[in-house]
Specification:
Blueprint (H helix, E strand, L loop, with lengths): L6 H8 L5 E4 L5 E4 L1 H6 L4 H4 L4 H5 L14 H8 L3 E8 L5 E12 L5 E12 L15 H14 L5 E4 L6 H11 L7 E5 L8 H6 E2 L11 E2 L1 H4 L4 E5 L6 H13 L1 E2 L8 E2 L3 E6 L3 H6 L5 H7 L2 E4 L10 H12 L8 E2 L1 H9 L5 H15 L4 E2 L35 H15 L4 H8 L3 H11 L3
Parallel strand pairs: 6-13, 6-14, 7-10, 10-13, 15-16
Antiparallel strand pairs: 1-2, 1-5, 3-4, 4-5, 8-9, 11-12
Helix pairs in contact: 6-7, 10-12, 13-15, 15-16, 17-18
Length: about 450
């Protein structure tokens, strides 16, 4: 040990700004810098002699035995630098996401060591947003999180790609909160929800008298997002007649309100998202190629849920906790229910998982969700009768018997309305949907 701590080796470690540790072939830590000791709330005498997986993973076995890509194993095998994304546990025993770079280091004699540099990505509480949080430990999720973190450090426009329901708005909020604009507005809009005739008004606003019935000035989304981030979801739905105007604003930062003559400026970082192939749309003349290159300064693909099925247990647990916050009994998935979820491909991704669990909660009793309560792909073995009003034959704490999926959803929404005293915004938050979507459901189910 004294030989290992020769001045040149300790100096190599101490000059590293990030946590850095030297590890032998038996996973034993032989030296660590101050940043490493501070990160894990241990002094050097405590760290030296422990195994790396004891300190950072709180695990009695190396990480490869838990199914992770182990930098120690790879560096000693290949003699080459190896980089991975891992979940570590900080000084408070909370999970945190970190990028690990393992370097082969030649010590005195024929001794070889792993020099491990640790770069913080995010704590678990940094993944929270207004409605939900990003959750996962799968390789696909961790790699995506690392890409989002790196992108947040840039001012380039970002295009988020991925299937419907993968959590593109959550990713956009994460980027915003990790950027230098975190203390400025984050404004989100779904382009598919704006009528073509209202698109310019939504983005740029209008002056009094700009059109019939216009009695006042209105700020557009670019003004509201000034200094912050504007998130355009479903960017493939931007009307063709608006694409040139949007391109000009992105290139110059200048625009005019409808009916106005003054040139206004807005400093906005744009994040866009789509589940469509914009290059294919450009070839079909449905999307401007120059606009594509403007909004896709950095393009990031978010993994589908079937690419990270190992995250389903943690996602389901977090969703059930949120769904039952409204006063319903806490629910727990049985092993067969969880197995059924893990085998499913989830074409609707995380959004579909939430919807399945929402219905399962309404169907379950005594807080236990079994496989029989998990109905996949929108199919159900129950009779499919749509409700014509507030669901009958139900109680405040019970589930309707012999009901269709639609009736169960209506019953659940009705209970939420009662528990939240009719406050629609709160109910929409609990359901994880927009207030506009909730309003459509209320009209469909005739719930006052």
């Amino acid at each position: 040990m004294d030989t290992l701590l020769a001045p040149e080796l300790q100096s190599l470690i101490d000059v590293q700004e990030n946590p850095f540790v030297l590890i032998d072939e038996n996973y034993r830590i032989v030296a660590a810098n101050r940043a490493y000791c501070v990160t894990y709330a241990m002094d050097k005498n405590e760290v030296v002699g422990k195994t790396c997986h004891e300190v950072s993973h709180r695990s009695p076995v190396p990480c490869h035995q838990n199914g992770e890509d182990c930098p120690h194993q790879e560096v000693f095998r290949s003699g080459q630098t190896h980089e991975v994304i891992h979940t570590h546990f900080d000084r408070h025993n909370r999970p945190e996401y970190a990028r690990i770079k393992g370097h082969p280091i030649q010590g005195p004699g024929q001794h070889r060591y792993l020099g491990e540099a640790i770069f913080h990505i995010a704590n678990s509480d940094e993944l929270d947003c207004e409605d939900l949080r990003m959750i996962g430990n799968s390789p696909a999720f961790l790699a995506c999180l690392d890409q989002l973190t790196r992108a947040a450090e840039s001012e380039a426009a970002i295009l988020l790609l991925g299937e419907s329901g993968v959590g593109k708005e959550l990713a956009a909020q994460y980027i915003h909160r990790r950027s230098t604009r975190r203390n400025k507005p984050f404004i989100a809009v779904n382009c598919a929800s704006i009528a073509e005739t209202m698109f310019e008004d939504e983005l740029f606003g209008h002056e009094r008298g700009a059109f019939t019935g216009c009695i006042g000035r209105r700020q557009g989304l670019f003004e509201l997002a000034d200094g912050g981030t504007l998130f355009l979801d479903e960017a493939g739905e931007i009307p063709s007649n608006m694409q040139a105007k949007l391109l000009r604003v992105l290139e110059t930062g200048e625009f005019r309100r409808l009916g106005g003559t003054d040139t206004l400026r807005a400093d906005v970082r744009l994040i866009s998202a789509t589940n469509r192939d914009l290059l294919e749309m450009a070839e079909a003349k449905l999307f401007r190629l120059d606009l594509y290159y403007r909004i896709a300064g950095i393009d990031l693909a978010l993994p589908s849920l079937r690419e990270r099925s190992g995250d389903i247990p943690a996602l389901a647990e977090a969703m059930l906790k949120r769904i039952t916050q409204a006063g319903a009994p806490r629910c727990k998935l049985t092993d067969d229910a969880l197995e059924k979820l893990m085998r499913y491909s989830f074409p609707g991704n995380v959004r579909e998982l939430r919807n399945i669990l929402l219905k399962a909660v309404a169907m379950s009793s005594h807080g236990i969700i079994s496989a029989a309560h998990i109905h996949l792909g929108g199919h159900s073995s129950m009779h499919n009768h749509a409700p014509s009003g507030t669901p009958s034959d139900t109680t405040r704490t019970g589930s309707p018997s012999g009901s269709s999926i639609a009736e169960l959803e209506a019953h659940h929404i009705a209970e939420l309305l009662i528990s939240h005293n009719g406050h629609r915004r709160n109910v929409a938050d609990v359901l994880g949907i927009s207030e506009r979507t909730l309003y459509r459901k209320l009209k469909h189910y005739k719930l006052a």
